[in-house]
Amino acid sequence: MATQKDHLIGLLLGAEEDWPQAFEQILRFVGPLNVDSTEHRIASERLTIEPFDLTDPVRTGLVIDRLAHWYFHPREWLKKAALVNGTYLLNSPFTFQSYEKHAAYCAMIRLGLKVPPTILVPYKNPVDNHRWTYTSEKYNKPFDLDLLAAELGYPLYMKPFDGGGWRGVSRVNDQNDLHSAYDDSGEMLMHLQATVDHEHFARALSIGPETMVMDFRPEEPMHQRYHVSHGFLSEGAGKQAVAVSRIVNAFFHWEFNSAEMLVAGDDVYPIDYANACPDVAVTSLHYYFPWAISALVKWSAYCLVTGRRPNVDLETHRYFEIADSERSYDERLDAYLALADEHFETERYHVWCAEHLGHLDELVAQWVSGADFDRLLVETVRATYPSHEHEQFLAHFRGLIGMWAQDQQRVGVGVKGTVGAAGGAGHPVDDAGSEPSLP
Predict the structure, then answer these.
(1) From CA 6, how far away is CA 33, in angstroms rounded?
(2) Which residues in 174-283 belong to E strands, given as ranges?
(3) 3-state DSSP assignment of residue 304
(4) Count of CB atoms within 10 A of residue 403's CB?
(5) Local structure of 191: helix, strand or coil
(6) Rounded CA gap, 154 and 252, in Å?
(7) Is the backbone of residue 435 left (phi > 0), alpha (psi -120 to 50) or beta?
(8) Which residue intervals of the chain bear CATH 3.40.50?
(9) What global pTM score does this model have?
(10) Residue 132 above 90 pLDDT?
(11) What is the pLDDT of residues 42-68, one digit of tens each?
(12) Is the pLDDT of residue 97 over 60?
């Protein structure tokens, strides 16, 4: 008779309701897993925030964190859970706190990735510290902001060194924009970053060893930013985009992260890849939402059932040894990716999912096509948009989700989602589709 082992996933949430409900439902589809003569049962619960003793036990074997990047009390609980109790975290607060965007740029430049030229400039306004006046008068050297911008070339971008969610990001087209953006920066520490003439803006979402590269349109409203366009990158650029996203995650031991890249021909330029709380809202990802939540469930189940342990040792020397070698850029990228696949146990993960979660994709496709998912979509639309826009957006998202379901039928219900840049051409759904009206 098989022994039984229970696992608990903790969801550390803020104001989100759509993806947690989807995660909880898809996790129920997993069911008991019989692995190596043991029956594994996996459940989840939403975690509450309360005082804690540093020696308190922790029931959750794995936590998906959506709060620690801005709410410090649960962030410190996560550190305690990892260090004292061995809890597996998506994501590590240790590296996300110490490797904000600035340090992440530095690390990837060290690896030789094509990060655009970037300059850190001092604060515009005085820091709120009584030592500022003396320190700045004695040690702050005057600098010519216009000259720095001219060296990078217009247009360029000014953005916080630790930013997120497009906070404080400005496109700078000329000197007037430059000084206006710098004046508005206040006490934010800012980067100036050169832009690149590009054909595509790609956003890759990586969850464990799975990556989806999406055609991202940052100038569009949020519901239209992720364009359904499977063939938008060349084979070479698609391979690079997947590799960059996965290498970044493996280097910092991040497991649930998005990376933004400018793509010109076969060249990929990473510009933002430290996102502790990547966008997984159904009203943003729409077509890609079922893949994202399925991948999150699969990776969580894999980590718990296989006993994967967290490792706070980044082993950066292994990457730096490759960076300092005589390899070409493509050869270094392949070597970095091999380290990333080793870290994420990529081959073992896909074999394990095929053996133990082979039933999941079909159940997800059936659920997404049914009434319960439609209820979730209706609730989300009502909570997100004003009432006079409900019909428009419900038709829009029903159309995109319906297109995803049809594509799963066409390919035999395969939701691997490894390279979004591969496959046939897709297209966004017209808002004026013939979907049912809002109940």
Answers:
(1) 11
(2) 190-194, 200-207, 210-216, 226-227, 256-264, 267-272
(3) helix
(4) 18
(5) strand
(6) 32
(7) beta
(8) 3-98
(9) 0.90
(10) no
(11) 999 999 999 999 999 999 999 999 998
(12) yes
Report the candidate in 316, 310, 365, 350 with the shortest Cα–Cα distance to residue 336.
316
For 194, phi then psi, to 5°, come to: -65, 150
Domain with CATH 3.30.1490.20 in the chain: 117-194
Quote the CA–CA distance of 330 and 346 in Å, as a whole number.
20
423: which 2 tokens?
A: 């496959």
Task: Give CA angle at 319 (311, 105), nearest 5°.
Answer: 90
Query: In CATH, what class is 3-98?
Result: alpha beta
The CA distance from 406 to 90, in Å, is: 31
Q: Report d(CA 311, CA 104) in Å as an integer.
A: 19
Sequence-distant (6+) residues with CB within 8 A of 303 are 62, 88, 208
* Residues 263, 238: Cα–Cα separation, whole Å: 9
Distance from C-alpha of 383 to C-alpha of 281, rounded to nearest angstrom: 12
**Strand locations in 49-189 (E):** 62-65, 88-90, 118-121, 156-160, 170-172
Q: How far is CA 163 from the centre of its chain?
A: 14
State the pLDDT confidence band at 100, using cuts at 50, 70 and 90: confident
Q: At what angle do helices 360-368 and 18-30 cross, to 10 degrees?
A: 140
Q: How far, in Å, CA of 124 to CA of 190, rounded? A: 9
Residue 383, token pair as written in the block: 């909570």
Burial of 179 (0-12, 13-18, 19+ CB in 10 A): middle
- Helix then strand count (H, E) for the chain reads 16, 14
CA quadruple 158, 288, 415, 278: dihedral positive or negative? positive
Residue count of the chain, please give it.
Answer: 439
Identify the DSSP state of 53.
-
| Amino acid, res. 220 | E
- Residues 53, 84 contacting (CB under 8 angstroms): no
Given the candidates 3.40.640.10, 3.40.50.620, 3.30.1490.20, 3.90.1640.10, the CATH classification of the domain at 117-194 is: 3.30.1490.20
- C-alpha dist (Å) from residue 146 to 118, 122, 125, 152, 181: 15, 14, 18, 10, 12
- CA pair distance 251, 315, nearest whole angstrom: 8
54 Cβ neighbours under 8 A, 6+ residues apart? 80, 84
Distance CA 159, CA 77 (A): 30
Residue 174 and residue 378: Cα distance in Å, rounded? 44
Average pLDDT of the chain, as a whole number: 90
